[in-house]
């Protein structure tokens, strides 16, 4: 089984050649799943080249809006030196809500996890 998340980003970042080399080494009898928030031409081309009889599924294809009605999205522009304090404050004031925080690297995720763990304590991990 091959699973690629954010397939469009992988291709946009210039990894098409590497990805094609990996695909050439894998069994043709595998199940392949490509996940992407956007359906770009490069993702469609990759699907056609690496899959037999690909099926394209869209989660909200029939919806009037891409965002579910009950989902509330908020964005804040915060100076770099205030980001951790703002995030901590936001989390503390929204304890009964689900919050999704995007970070740009695994290292940032690890640092933030251990930082929040040290502030809150080990019983919440």
Give your account of this protein's structure.
With 125 residues, the protein is mainly alpha-helical. It folds into two domains: 49 residues, no CATH class; 45 residues, no CATH class. The chain is 42% helix and 6% strand. The protein has five helices and two strands; from the N terminus they run βααβααα. A two-stranded parallel sheet has the order 1-2. The longest helix has 15 residues. The radius of gyration is 20 Å and the shape is extended. The model has no long low-confidence stretch (mean pLDDT 78).
Nutshell version of this structure?
The protein has 125 residues and is mostly helical.
Q: How many DSSP E strands? A: 2
Query: Approximately how much beta-strand content do the residues carry?
Result: 5-15%
Number of helices: 5
Distance between the termini: 31 Å
Strand order of the largest sheet: 1-2
Sheet with the most strands?
2 strands, parallel
Integer tally of domains = 2
| Helix residue percentage | 40-55%
From the structure provided, what is the oligomeric state, counting identical versus distinct chains?
A: single chain
- What value does the Rg take, in angstroms? 20 Å
Structural class: mainly alpha
Low-pLDDT sequence parts? none
- Rough outline: extended
